[in-house]
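ok new one. same drill as before - structure tokens go in, u give me an amino acid for every spot. 147 of them this time. try not to just spam alanines like last time pls lmao
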């Protein structure tokens, strides 16, 4: 059987991705794989001085980053026990692009994601990070759907 030596797990901190994490974590432990946990801060539309001139965009950005770091820290504290072979990454951008970019940079052997299985208008409006990653990834992708 092929070994997984690096696993990229992407989280938006939803219940969905938490469930997917259990699979990523189990596999990482089984293969003693490096587990990379990525969260992508959805790149905000550039509001700089356009709609809300009184708000400092830099300040807002910094607060968003700090909030994401706190969430990541809490996530790892509650979900990871006695496993040190992991790292966390927080970047800003378009989630599927950043996930794919990281996977290629790190040459990971597996990507693990949640999926909501949106359909109809929801799917049309919001698209699907999971679907885009599955379509474009050059490495295997595991998606876990919350039933
Ligand atoms: P979606 O297709 O948008 O419902 O998202 C499916 C899965 O993609 C989530 O369960 C996460 O595993 C991953 N994902 C979505 N958004 C992000 C994000 N901003 N950062 C990291 N992973 C994400």
């Amino acid at each position: 059987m092929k070994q997984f030596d690096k696993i990229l797990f992407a989280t938006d901190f939803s219940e969905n991705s938490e469930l997917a994490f259990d699979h990523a974590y189990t596999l990482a432990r089984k293969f003693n794989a490096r587990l990379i946990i990525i969260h992508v801060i959805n790149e905000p539309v550039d509001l700089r001085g356009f709609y809300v001139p009184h708000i400092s965009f830099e300040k807002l950005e910094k607060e968003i980053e700090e909030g994401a770091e706190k969430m990541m820290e809490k996530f790892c504290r509650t979900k990871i026990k006695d496993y040190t072979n992991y790292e966390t990454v927080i970047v800003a951008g378009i989630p599927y692009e950043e996930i794919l970019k990281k996977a290629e940079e790190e040459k990971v052997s597996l990507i693990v994601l949640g999926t909501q299985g949106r359909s109809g208008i929801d799917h049309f409006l919001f698209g699907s990070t999971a679907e885009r990653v599955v379509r474009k990834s050059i490495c295997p992708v595991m998606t876990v759907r919350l039933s």
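The first strand starts at residue 6 and ends at 10. and btw The chain has one domain: 6-145.
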